[in-house]
Automatic annotation (TrEMBL):
A cellular component annotation (GO) from this entry: cytoplasm
Cofactor: adenosylcob(III)alamin
GO biological processes: propionate metabolic process, methylmalonyl pathway
Protein's UniProt name: Methylmalonyl-CoA mutase small subunit
The organism of origin for this protein: Hyphomonas oceanitis SCH89
């Protein structure tokens, strides 16, 4: 820059923080900056402003990327060609179809594959023996692309045995890139069962680890806490379970060389569409694991993290919006330093994804990597005041959850007693109330629903072969069953779609368009979340008789008054009486004005799910 060219900022006077806060207070009409502070499911505050006083970034307290204890990631120089592993999950039940999908996706940019194996063929690839696995992996070069296992209903011993048998005859077992992902406690949490006692299960784990010793490049154990997230848990609960599961697993392997085993553990977390909190969660995980290794007196090792986009955030209605959700979560994984990222196909909420769903999933990562260049910088959020401060807050909350689990005897005992599941259920239920009131909106479902949407495609799934009978469970607990955040609203949409007559509500507008349009749009959007079409007068009514005539012509049985606060006192009561006399079975008013004849009100913050359920019941729509 030439000496006579000054930066644009030089034209403005320096502003103090006090002046900035005063401007914020004015914009918020005196409510103060605390009024826009948000609180997470863990009770942590997300402030609108962070400063150097919140996190002393200038002193670089976390060290540098690639330096022990690896709080800022495993490397200071990301791989120029593959800064993170693009892993695709495969769930089609037919082994031959899965093989074709694997070969196609590897040719088109996927760098590793994850096989979701389900003997029943209901939630993954139906592999009943070595022949099926050979069909699935025909043509796959495991020295180039990692083969990862994701058993649906067992700790991974059977799947690991099949994969190791498949590899027999390879010239160099050490060169094979496998991720066996053995996880007994994850299986207990996910399914609520184990086929053996804890002592016998971990004896089997130790024996399996010994038999897999020739695979020196393989990842052996996976500590998976995604089921906590998918069951409705909070970030701190997911992280607390992650660390508790790791500690309990290592504690039950007394003969294991922890220093040798620690680098061969993969940790799995879920990421949703809140990328700021997602980045902080990955950073908090590294801090927690580094602290555990310190307490275990184990040499610091980088924490290998697999981030998977959340299943609970995906919607069945307007499923195309899932692309945005998954893109945001993938961004968090890339920026947060995940070593492996798996993006769920946007249409996986509808059934088995087909080529379009998998193509978008892999291209989301490829674009982020190749075009957005997200992997070019090591630890890009390092030192950011919000990210570092919130990561610290989250790590402390997760450590408290970890200590709770330890006081309950460790992760296995806490699961078997149901104590941990109870805390997750409390968090899930509290979030459900916020979803019902749209404090947590779901775009395309509870907000801005499309009644005439174009359905997303899914694959045709072959009929599975008869599955072998599962072994009897020796240990049982309440499983951390997955939920869908949108499920209550989508159940109403399902019921409305199945009704013999499409349910509808009449928008009884008061006054000119300029006065009623805002609330009419609000009402239209709200009732559409339950699958109700909104019918309006063909022309703006100029009198109550015209309004009543329009209602009768609509064929509706329920209605909502939409007008301005200044008009309601003069016209709402008379309009309500006339509409009730004309046959309105239930009358809402958009706003908080109350008058005789008005049965209910809708407004920002009302219980939308209750309102829609009431509307369905009034119309006789049955779920």
């Amino acid at each position: 820059m030439a000496d006579d060219i000054l930066p644009l900022s030089s034209a403005f006077a320096d502003a103090t923080e006090a002046e900035w806060l005063a401007a914020v207070d004015k914009a918020l009409k005196g409510k103060g900056i605390d009024s826009i502070t948000r609180t997470t499911a863990d009770g942590l505050k997300v402030h609108p402003l962070y400063r150097e006083s919140d996190f002393p970034s200038a002193t670089d307290p976390l060290g540098t990327p690639g330096a022990a204890p690896y709080l800022r990631g495993a490397t200071a120089a990301p791989d120029a060609w593959l800064p993170w592993d693009i892993r695709q999950a495969f769930t089609h039940p037919d082994p031959a179809t899965t093989n074709a999908e694997i070969l196609r996706d590897l040719e088109r940019g996927v760098s590793s594959i994850e096989l979701t194996l389900d003997p029943a063929g209901e939630n993954g690839v139906q592999v009943l023996g070595l022949a099926d696995l050979q069909t699935v992996l025909d043509g796959v070069d495991a020295t180039i692309a990692t083969i990862a296992l994701d058993p649906v209903d067992e700790p991974g011993f059977i799947a690991a045995g099949l994969l190791s048998t498949w590899a027999e005859g390879a010239a160099d077992l050490a060169a094979l890139k496998f991720a066996f992902n053995l996880d007994p406690l994850g299986a207990l949490a996910r399914t609520g069962t184990l086929a053996a006692s804890l002592d016998d299960t971990f004896a089997s784990l130790a024996d399996t680890l010994s038999r897999l010793s020739p695979f020196t490049s393989a990842s052996l154990i996976r500590i998976d806490a995604r089921m906590v997230h998918e069951a409705g848990g909070s970030d701190a609960q997911e992280l607390g379970a992650l660390i508790a599961s790791a500690v309990d697993t290592l504690r039950r392997l007394p003969e294991a060389d922890l220093a040798a085993l620690a680098p061969r553990i993969t940790f799995s977390l879920a990421l949703d569409a809140n990328y700021g909190l997602g980045v902080a969660k990955l950073r908090a995980a590294r801090r927690l694991w580094a602290r555990c290794l310190e307490l275990l007196d184990v040499t610091p090792a980088p924490m290998r993290i697999q981030a998977t986009t959340s299943a609970r955030m995906l919607a069945r209605y307007d499923a195309w919006t899932n692309m945005l959700r998954c893109t945001t979560a993938a961004f968090a994984g890339a920026v947060g330093g995940a070593d492996v990222v798996t993006v769920r196909p946007f249409n996986s909420s509808l059934g088995t994804p087909e080529e379009l769903g998998r193509r978008i999933a892999r291209n989301t990562q490829i674009i982020a990597m190749e075009e957005s260049q997200l992997g070019r910088v090591a630890d890009p959020t390092g030192g950011a005041w919000f990210t570092e401060t919130f990561a610290d807050d989250l790590a402390k909350a997760a450590w408290e959850e970890f200590q709770n689990i330890e006081r309950e005897g460790g992760y296995a005992d806490s699961l078997l007693s149901g104590a941990f599941q109870s805390r997750v259920a409390a968090t899930r239920d509290a979030r459900a109330k916020d979803i019902a009131k749209r404090k947590v909106p779901i775009t395309g479902v509870s907000e801005f629903p499309l009644l005439d949407e174009i359905a997303a495609p899914t694959a045709d799934a072959a009929t599975p072969k008869p599955a072998p009978k599962a072994p009897a469970a020796v240990l049982t607990c309440t499983p951390l069953a997955p939920i869908q955040l949108a499920a209550p609203f989508e159940a109403l949409r399902d019921a409305a779609a199945a009704a013999k007559k499409a349910p509808a509500i009449f928008l009884a507008t008061l006054g000119p368009v300029a006065e009623h349009s805002g609330r009419a749009d609000f009402a239209r959007n709200l009732f559409a979340a339950g699958g109700l079409e909104s019918k309006e007068p063909p022309v703006v009514p100029k009198s109550v008789p015209e309004l009543v005539a329009a209602f009768k012509a609509s064929g509706c049985q329920i209605a909502v008054l939409c007008g301005s606060d200044t008009r309601y006192p003069d016209e709402a009561e008379a309009a309500a009486a006339a509409l009730k006399a004309a046959g309105v079975r239930h009358l809402w008013l958009a706003g908080k004005f109350e008058a005789p004849g008005i049965d209910s009100n809708i407004f920002m913050g009302c219980d939308v799910l209750h309102t829609l359920t009431l509307a369905h019941a009034t119309l006789g729509v049955r779920g």
